[in-house]
Inverse folding.
C-alpha cells in the first residue's frame, strides 16, 4: 500500500533526475511542453502531408501507392518505439520501484496499440494493389499482429487490477517477457524469407531511396514521433491525476467507515 | 503531385483510416485528461484534499 509509506521527500530534496521524474514535479514541468509540442506536431504533420501528396514523385515500381508508406513506416516505427519505452519503464518500475515509470508504461500502451493497428491497416492497403494480397502470414506481419495482441493484453491487465502499484509490478514482468517480440519484428525480414521487404532506410550502406521520397518519409517520421511524445505526456498527466483522485476517494471512504458506529 | 485513378481508393483508404484512428486517439486522450481534472475539482469542491496538501496537525 502506498499510504503506509514514510513521508516522501519533497522535490527540492532530490537530485536532478529524481526531481524531474517526481510525479508532482512532472506535472509542473510537463505543462510547459504541451502547447509547443502541439505546434511542432501540427507544423510537421502539415508539411509532411504536403510533401506526401503534392511534392513527391510516384515510385517507378510501386506507383502512387508509395504515398501510403509515409504513414505506414512512421506508425510501424512507433509501434516498436512505444514498446521500447514500455520495456524501459518496466525496468524502472522493477529495479527502482519508480512511480512515474508505472505511469509512463500505462500511458504508452493505448498509444502503441493504435499505431500498431495503423501500421497493419496501411500495410494491408498497400499490399493489396502491390502484392496482390491484403495479408500474408509472413514473419514481419505475423510478429506485428502478435505485437498488437500483446498491447491489448497489457491494456486489459491494467484495467483488471484495482491496486495499480501491484499491477505495475506484474505488468512490468509481462512487458519484459513480451519485449522479445521487438527484435523478432526487426530481424524477421532477415531471418525468414518474407514477402515484406528488408530494411531500406536505416542501413549501414545508407538508404536505398532517392531524397525526393526520403524527405517526406523523414518529415512524417518526426511528425509521428512528436505526436507520440505529446500524447504520451498528456496521458501520463491524466494517469497521475487519476491516481491522486483515487487516493483521495479511498481516504474519504476509509474516513466514512471509521466514523460509522 | 498525386494522380488520381491509380489505386486512388487504397491510398485514400489508408490515409482516411489512419486519420480517423489518430483523431479518435487524440480525442480520447484529451477527454480522459479533462475527465480526471473535473474529478479532482469535484473532490476539491467537497473539501477533500490529498494528505500532503492538508495542513499538518501539530503534535501535542
Amino acid at each position: 500500500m502506498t499510504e503506509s509509506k514514510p513521508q516522501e521527500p519533497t522535490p527540492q530534496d532530490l537530485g536532478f533526475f529524481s526531481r524531474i521524474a517526481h510525479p508532482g514535479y512532472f506535472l509542473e514541468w510537463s505543462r510547459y511542453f504541451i502547447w509547443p509540442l502541439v505546434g511542432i506536431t501540427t507544423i510537421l504533420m502539415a508539411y509532411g502531408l504536403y510533401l506526401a501528396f503534392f511534392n513527391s514523385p510516384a515510385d517507378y515500381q510501386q506507383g502512387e501507392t508509395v504515398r501510403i508508406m509515409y504513414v505506414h513506416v512512421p506508425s510501424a516505427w512507433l509501434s516498436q518505439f512505444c514498446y521500447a519505452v514500455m520495456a524501459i519503464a518496466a525496468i524502472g518500475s522493477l529495479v527502482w520501484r519508480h512511480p512515474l515509470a508505472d505511469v509512463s508504461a500505462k500511458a504508452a500502451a493505448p498509444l502503441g496499440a493504435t499505431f500498431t493497428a495503423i501500421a497493419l491497416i496501411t500495410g494491408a492497403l498497400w499490399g493489396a494493389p502491390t502484392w496482390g494480397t491484403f495479408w500474408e502470414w509472413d514473419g514481419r506481419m505475423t510478429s506485428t499482429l502478435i505485437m498488437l495482441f500483446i498491447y491489448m493484453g497489457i491494456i486489459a491487465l491494467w484495467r483488471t487490477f484495482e491496486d495499480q502499484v501491484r499491477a505495475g509490478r506484474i505488468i512490468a514482468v509481462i512487458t519484459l517477457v513480451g519485449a522479445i517480440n521487438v527484435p523478432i519484428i526487426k530481424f524477421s525480414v532477415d531471418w525468414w524469407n518474407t514477402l515484406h521487404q528488408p530494411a531500406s532506410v536505416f542501413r549501414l550502406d545508407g538508404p536505398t531511396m532517392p531524397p525526393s521520397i526520403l524527405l517526406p518519409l523523414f518529415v512524417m517520421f518526426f511528425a509521428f514521433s512528436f505526436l507520440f511524445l505529446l500524447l504520451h505526456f498528456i496521458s501520463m498527466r491524466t494517469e497521475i491525476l487519476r491516481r491522486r483522485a483515487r487516493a483521495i476517494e479511498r481516504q474519504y471512504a476509509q474516513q466514512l467507515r471509521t466514523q460509522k458506529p | 503531385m498525386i494522380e488520381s485513378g491509380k489505386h486512388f481508393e487504397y491510398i485514400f483508404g489508408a490515409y482516411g483510416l489512419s486519420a480517423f484512428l489518430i483523431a479518435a486517439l487524440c480525442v480520447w486522450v484529451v477527454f480522459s485528461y479533462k475527465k480526471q481534472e473535473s474529478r479532482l475539482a469535484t473532490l476539491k469542491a467537497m473539501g477533500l484534499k490529498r494528505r500532503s496538501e492538508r495542513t499538518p496537525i501539530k503534535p501535542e
